[in-house]
Design brief:
With 281 residues, this protein is mostly helical. It has two domains: 2-67, no CATH class; 89-273, hpI Integrase, Chain A (Orthogonal Bundle). It is built from twelve helices and three strands, in the order H-H-H-H-H-H-E-E-E-H-H-H-H-H-H. The protein has a three-stranded antiparallel β-sheet with strand order 1-2-3.
Length: 281
């Protein structure tokens, strides 16, 4: 009998504690204070307590079902508008990489592929040596966004930068073959890899672009996707057909490319406003 009474006391104490926690959270929210994020079990318990207060006949199972409903996702943070780089600023990034070390040559090739071919950073890092035809200026993206294939063009100046890295990569591969015999880590490595044949990660590229931007003294935000923005903006300034730009960027439709270009380089709006005449007093 005493044990049963003790169990009822403990259950009552737990219920009072939950009700107290709910009251504290309500008071904190009313005062505008920040309330720590609760776990799923805590949320079920809180809703059960509130339901028992407001709807005494509701069961815990119904409260748990209400707690398990999908919640509205928080509104994402507003993205800052893209900042297009100039040719001189991109050259400053390349100079900040250096010129002669294997890492410098590889990073210069990476920046060049994103800047002159408009590749996404994931697409550039996934390239294999066989995907690049420098003689004909063709880069084959086997697994683009949506796992779609496309072939993009590369100008001779950009091809020369990539060729410098390929020559260094081939030299490192020959050294590795002599050292390790049949075991050649670079044989199956991506085009843009370390001297040990390991892939380059997107995290490394993110830190690299920020560091190079600081070294080059560029006041704008410098990031990998900004080079793709710059590529699209320059193609539009050069009068390249929107259909070709769409195929180069790998967009599914022309409407996507038009929205992209209007976001990156609102040429029509700027030209319309610049065409107006006004005489100041």
């Amino acid at each position: 009998m005493r044990g049963r009474q003790t169990g009822r006391d403990e259950a009552g104490g737990t219920k009072r504690k939950r009700e107290s926690d709910v009251a504290d959270q309500r008071a904190a929210r009313a005062a505008g204070e920040r309330v720590e994020r609760e776990s799923a079990k805590q949320r079920v318990a809180r809703i059960a307590c509130v339901a028992q207060e407001e709807r005494p006949g509701e069961t815990l199972a119904a409260s748990a079902a209400m707690a398990a409903r999908p919640q509205r996702r928080p509104k994402p943070k507003r993205r800052l508008p893209p900042e297009v780089l100039t040719d001189d600023e991109v050259r400053a990034l390349l100079d900040a990489c250096g010129r002669y070390t294997p890492v410098a040559l590889r990073n210069r090739a990476l920046i060049t592929l994103m800047y002159r071919a408009g590749l996404r950073v994931s697409e550039a890092l996934a390239l294999q040596p066989k995907d690049v035809d420098l003689a004909n200026g063709i880069v084959r993206v086997l697994h683009g966004k949506g796992d779609r294939y496309r072939a993009v063009g590369l100008d001779p100046g950009a091809a020369a930068v990539v060729a410098a890295w390929l020559a260094e990569r081939g030299r490192a591969q020959r050294v590795a073959a002599r050292t390790n015999g049949a075991s050649d880590p670079l044989a199956t490595a991506p085009l843009l890899c370390t001297v040990y044949g390991t892939p380059v990660t997107t995290g490394y590229v993110r830190r690299l672009m920020k560091r190079l931007g600081l070294q080059a003294g560029i006041a704008k935000r410098v990031h990998a996707h900004g080079l793709r923005h710059t590529h699209a903006a320059q193609l539009r300034e050069e009068g390249v057909d929107v259909g070709i730009i769409s195929r180069q960027l790998g967009h599914r439709s022309l409407l996507t490319t038009i929205r992209y270009l209007d976001h990156v380089q609102p040429t029509a709006v700027v030209e319309a406003m610049r065409g107006r005449h006004w005489v100041s007093a």
